[in-house]
Structures are given as structure tokens and as C-alpha cells.
Design brief:
By secondary structure, the protein is α/β, with parallel strands linked by helices. It has two domains: 201 residues, Medium-chain alcohol dehydrogenases, catalytic domain (Quinone Oxidoreductase, Chain A, domain 1), CATH 3.90.180; 135 residues, NAD(P)-binding Rossmann-like Domain (Rossmann fold, 3-Layer(aba) Sandwich), CATH 3.40.50. The protein is 26% helix and 24% strand. It contains eleven helices and 16 strands. It is globular and about 60 Å long. The N and C termini lie close together (10 Å). It binds nicotinamide-adenine-dinucleotide and zinc ion (2 copies). Nicotinamide-adenine-dinucleotide binds next to helix 1, helix 6, strand 10 and helix 9. It is an enzyme of class 1 (oxidoreductase). This is alcohol dehydrogenase. It catalyses: a primary alcohol + NAD(+) = an aldehyde + NADH + H(+); a secondary alcohol + NAD(+) = a ketone + NADH + H(+). Keywords: Metal-binding, Oxidoreductase, Zinc. Its cofactor is Zn(2+).
Length: 344
């Protein structure tokens, strides 16, 4: 089958032919119907050889949906032909966190060498994907594959982040979204669907801000050195009860710290390498800072339900598997508005 692989440190990903995978005991083989392109893959492909955590070549793709093509021995609960979404942050399934559905925080994944597809295990940017256990599959139940695939990360990750701050996002409150790309433009919709908060979105180009307004941002602000002052002004000086940073670089974290309200939440989702000083007096009183990872299995079920209700939809640009290297180039150049989706 064809697969998009990151093959050597520093090189661009390539479409290659690899053996068709076969499901072993307990595994499920999916015919991939769509795979999403995440900025985290670009981060992975920028890491140096020293300390690189995964074996190469690596088939990319940690957002995946597909149709069940074959079942390994002993698999029950899914049938050939079922259309399913893949819950990506695989865990051991039995530790205390996994027992709560929080496989993203599995206590034993590292020790057992369990990796998400596309982030260590072979990913979804291929004609077929092996899934280690049917519990990682959530029925699509009528959702369109290309429209739904990015909900598994670009939907689930902001959903998990926003849930933490729901008690603070009361009527009259403000939520700030920094970076309105793949994750951010879904975050805006989730905030509108789940909270009465006023949503202020920041990005670096007018085109991205236009999409932010189209998907529900009440206000948009260009992300520059004056952004924090503008956001403060929009909130009457109070600041934002919740700030979600989908960039995580030094300038955006500085903005996040400067726009947070007293007792506000700052959630750092982007892995842009910035840091935020949290000592006494560095941030408004009692600000809480968190850097979450992905989301829980139960939350993926909820995000898909929200999409079925029509409250959230991913703005997609589709590519064939042969065009996948181009999708990454365009994402790297900041030219994707919404999410790039590969249709193998
Ligand atoms: P993306 O490229 O689709 O979106 C990023 C957006 O940020 C773009 O619209 C870009 O124009 C904007 N941006 C860049 N610099 C900016 C600045 N200085 N101020 C404001 N906006 C700026 O990326 P994505 O796939 O949505 O991923 C967003 C981030 O989240 C990445 O760092 C990714 O690695 C990370 N991520 C983290 C998790 C997690 O579990 N923590 C999960 C998925 C992605
Ligand atoms: Zn991702
Ligand atoms: Zn576990």
C-alpha cells in the first residue's frame, strides 16, 4: 500500500510503498477514508536526531477515520464495514488513568512502549491503518469522514482544554483564542456552542481572522505587540477569564499572561517552545496555568455528538495521498486556512 512517511531526520515526508498490514490477535485493520494534517507533525519533523523519540521511517497521521476492513483473532464489538473514528492517544487500557478513559495520560504507556498512530506507531496517512484494540474506535454514525477526521485531534484537544475552564466561562466572561488554525478555529466554535462567553480571536493574518469571524469569534485582533492592550481594552480592563494559546511561542505566551484576568485560566496547547513565568507578581493573582495533552475517549464521543448536532464543523482543504507532502509544505508556510485533510 501507499503511505506517507517521515524517513530521515530533517527530510521532507515522502509517499512510498510499504507492505499491507495484517491484523494480529485483538487488532482491527481499517481502510483509511481520511487523515488529518496537524502542526505537531511539523514540530516532530523539526526535532534533532539526538533524543528523537520515534523509530524511522514513521508513517505520519494521528488523526484518522476509516472503515473496518478486517478483524484480528478474538476481536468483538466491531464489524467489517463499520465507519469509525480513531481515538489516538492509546494507553495500556487498565491503569488508573486509562480506567477513567484518560488514555492520553496513561501511567504505563512509556514503560510499555505504547505510542499513538503517527506519533511512534504507523499512522493514518496510508491506505490501511492497524488499530491495536477496538476500544480505540468510536462510531462515526453518519458523520462524513473528511469533515469528521480532524475532530479526533483538532476537535478533541480544544474540547478537553475548554472543559477545564467551563466554570469560569459564565455570562459576561471573555475567552481568548490565540492562533485560529486547525485547532483554534474549532476552539472558537466549541466556545460558542458550550459557553456564553464573548470570544476574542488572535492570529497573524487578516485571512485567518476572517475565518475566525466566520466560525463565530465576536472580536478579532491581529496578534502583535499591541494585541494585549487591545484585548484588555475590549474587556474594560478586566482581562479574559480563559486564554487558550494554540501557538505556545514566546510572544503569544507573553500576550496570554498579559490578557488573563485575576483568577483566570491560561491553557497552553501549542508546542511553540515558549515559557511563561509563574512566580508571585508575574501574573494576575490566582491565575491557573495548564499545558494539557489531547483528550479523553469519552470527550471524543462528546465532540462527535456535537458535530452531529451541527454545532461544530471543520473548515477543510482536501488533498490526495500523493499530494500529502504539498499539504505539509503549505501548512508550514501558514497557507492552510482551517485543516488540511488527506483522502487516501
Ligand atoms: P495550525 O498551523 O493549523 O494553526 C496555528 C495558527 O497559529 C495559524 O493560524 C497561525 O497563523 C497562527 N499563529 C502563528 N503565529 C502566531 C502568533 N504569533 N500569534 C497568533 N497566531 C499565530 O496548527 P494546529 O495544527 O492548529 O496546531 C496548533 C498548535 O497546537 C501546534 O503547536 C501543535 O503542535 C499543537 N498541538 C498540541 C496538542 C496538544 O495535545 N497539546 C494537540 C494538537 C496540536
Ligand atoms: Zn495533532
Ligand atoms: Zn494506562
Amino acid at each position: 500500500m501507499k503511505a506517507l512517511q517521515y524517513r530521515s531526520i530533517g527530510s521532507a515526508p515522502e509517499v512510498v510503498v510499504v507492505p499491507d498490514p495484517e491484523p494480529g490477535p485483538g487488532q482491527v485493520l481499517l481502510k483509511v477514508t481520511a487523515a488529518g494534517v496537524c502542526h505537531s507533525d511539523i514540530a516532530v519533523m523539526s526535532w534533532p536526531a539526538e533524543g528523537f523519540p520515534y523509530e524511522l521511517p514513521l508513517t505520519l497521521g494521528h488523526e484518522g477515520v476509516g472503515t473496518v476492513a478486517a478483524l484480528g483473532a478474538g476481536v468483538t464489538g466491531v464489524r467489517e464495514g463499520d465507519a469509525v473514528a480513531v481515538y489516538g492517544p492509546w494507553g495500556c487500557g487498565s491503569c488508573a488513568k486509562c480506567a477513567e478513559g484518560k488514555e492520553n495520560y496513561c501511567l504505563r504507556a512509556d514503560e510499555l512502549g505504547i505510542r499513538p498512530p503517527g506519533l511512534g506507531a504507523p499512522g493514518s496517512m496510508a491506505e490501511y491503518l492497524l488499530v491495536d484494540d477496538p476500544r480505540h474506535l468510536v462510531p462515526l454514525d453518519g458523520l462524513d469522514p473528511a469533515a469528521a477526521v480532524s475532530l479526533t485531534d483538532a476537535g478533541l484537544t480544544p474540547y478537553h482544554a475548554i472543559k477545564r475552564s467551563l466554570p469560569k466561562l459564565v455570562p459576561g466572561s471573555t475567552a481568548v483564542v490565540i492562533g485560529t488554525g486547525g485547532l483554534g478555529h474549532v476552539a472558537i466554535q466549541l466556545l460558542r456552542a458550550m459557553t456564553p462567553a464573548r470570544v476574542v480571536a488572535l492570529d497573524v493574518t487578516e485571512e485567518k481572522l476572517r475565518l475566525a469571524r466566520e466560525v463565530g469569534a465576536h472580536e478579532t485582533v491581529l496578534s502583535d505587540a499591541q494585541a494585549a492592550a487591545k484585548v484588555r481594552e475590549l474587556t474594560g480592563g478586566v482581562g479574559a477569564e480563559a486564554v487558550f494559546d494554540f501557538v505556545g511561542a514566546q510572544p503569544t505566551l507573553a500576550t496570554a499572561g498579559a490578557v488573563a484576568a485575576v483568577e483566570g485560566d491560561i491553557t497552553i496547547v501549542g508546542i511553540g517552545g515558549g515559557t511563561l513565568p509563574v512566580g508571585f507578581g508575574q501574573l494576575p493573582f490566582e491565575v491557573s496555568v495548564s499545558a494539557p495533552y489531547w483528550g479523553t475517549r469519552g470527550e471524543l464521543v462528546e465532540v462527535l455528538a456535537l458535530a452531529r448536532s451541527g454545532a461544530v464543523s471543520v473548515h477543510t482543504e482536501t488533498f490526495t495521498l500523493d499530494e500529502a507532502p504539498l499539504a505539509y509544505e503549505r501548512l508550514h508556510a501558514g497557507e492552510i486556512n482551517g485543516r488540511a485533510v488527506i483522502l487516501p
